[in-house]
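Q: Got a minute? One more chain.
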Amino acid sequence: MMKNDEILTDRLILRKFTPKDFNSLFSILSDEKTNEFLPWPIATKLDDAIAFYNDKIIKKYKTKGYYYAICLKNDNIPIGYIKVNGDKTHELGYGLRSEFRHNGLMRESLSALLNKLKEDGVKYITATHDVKNYRSGNVMKSIGMKYLYSYRILWEPKNVFVSFRLYILNLDSNDNRKFNIYWNSYSNHFIEDIIS
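A: Always. Here it is, folded:
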């Protein structure tokens, strides 16, 4: 259910981050388990969270895309985030503080966001995960995303070689859609024999 650009679920409020959330955002971005596989350094001071808010949330998502704080209804304090890029990748991303994992909150958030995306006419979403981060892959599969291909790159944010798996979910039921952006961008691409 939507209310003033909020999405409400049984247990959660998905809403925009505000400057009042800087401390909570810092708690999310400084959680080592949450950020182990994400493309930015782990926050070490409050200023890192403020910069992230200004550079990664406000500038990038002010006019297009989706970026929500995940909050429990009982206190409306952010414990994670969920986003979909507004560009042609429609790339899904998410993070949840480690102490709130393994109780279905991320799947609840994703289900609500998928309903919003369908209402808004978004045709598909994609998502990638480091092959070592199999739990993120399990989340993608749990919402119906299908594996397409993998690619290996030097991941500059952390200066390591990483193999990523790419998944897609066609929200418009066009299962013949081709998504070759990363395949064409990176020469080291391949299809793994995995169950999607």
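A: The chain has six helices and ten strands.
Q: Perfect, thanks.
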